[in-house]
Amino acid sequence: MRMIIKPIQIYLKPEQDQALRTLAKCLGISIAELIRRSVDMYLRSLPVEEDPALRLVALGHSGRHDLAADHDRVLTQAGRQ
What we know:
mainly alpha
């Protein structure tokens, strides 16, 4: 499966740039891949209370009776809206 990526521009301090270049070279990966991995690690480290998905939980009675069986599809559709 091909990864869908979105380009983004950021501004780094010179020492951040140098540290990223050095670490990426040591790991044998691109700076972009290092930044993606770093963002993933940061997002996984957030306390559960700050997880954006929790805003979907217990928001009230939806009137739907298929949530237990179709929760993946329903959450995917809700995330697109």
